[in-house]
Amino acid sequence: MNNTEEKLENIEDVLQQLVISINRFSQQEVKRQGEMRIPDYTERLDQIYKELSELKQGNPQTELHQLVEQLKKLKSEPRTVKQHRLLLFPETNQGQYYKIVFGRLLPWGLLFVATTYCFSLGQKALDVWKIKDYNDRADQYVKAWLYLDEHAENKVIKKRMAEAWQKANR
What's the CA gap between 53 and 80, in Å, rounded? Predict the structure, then answer.
């Protein structure tokens, strides 16, 4: 019995140690579940920091290199070609085109030209009428002067009229 009791005590000791170790592991597991695992981003952050410091320094060579690459890309892309044409006669809808041109534009154009010509002719006629009216009045004054000069009986009047004529013709 001694042997069995010793075995039981040994088993009891082992069980107690197991219970103690299980309790420790369960406490560690509870602690680990409470902790969050955060991945290590130090390398990536260092890389970003280096890139930012390069940008802050304003390395002109890298910017120039990027601009040259963009220019090469732009030159390699196909461009649209703008074509400017003046069509006197349309490729489609010819009937509608001629209807508009000969039915509307041509008569209105002729009417505009005729109106402009009549206006110009009227201006010239008005100018000619003004000149003729001015000459008629001037002739009337000259005829009156000559009539007075011929029919003046006094020599003093004729002399004064001759002096006035000379002063007017200077």
Answer: 41
End-to-end Cα, the chain, rounded Å: 175
Residues 6+ apart with CB under 8 A from 158: 149, 152
- What are the pLDDT digits (tens) for 123-151? 999 999 999 999 999 899 888 888 888 88
Amino acid found at 95? G
In whole angstroms, give the CA distance from residue 95 to residue 170: 73
Angle, helix 155-169 to helix 106-150, in steps of 10 degrees: 150
Q: How far apart are CA 9 and CA 168, in angstroms?
A: 164
Sign of torsion, CA 142 146 147 148?
positive
Q: What is the pTM of this model?
A: 0.36
List alpha helices for the chain, DSSP H.
Answer: 2-34, 42-57, 60-76, 94-100, 106-150, 155-169
Per residue in 81-107, pLDDT (tens digit) is 888 888 777 778 888 888 887 888 888
Contact 161, 149 (CB under 8 A): yes
Q: Name every residue whose Cβ is closer than 8 Å to that of residue 165 and which is 6 or more positions away in sequence.
A: 145
CB 64 within 8 A of CB 71: no
Among all chains, which residue has been given the structure tokens 């009428």? 129
Distance of CA 9 to the CA centre of its chain: 98
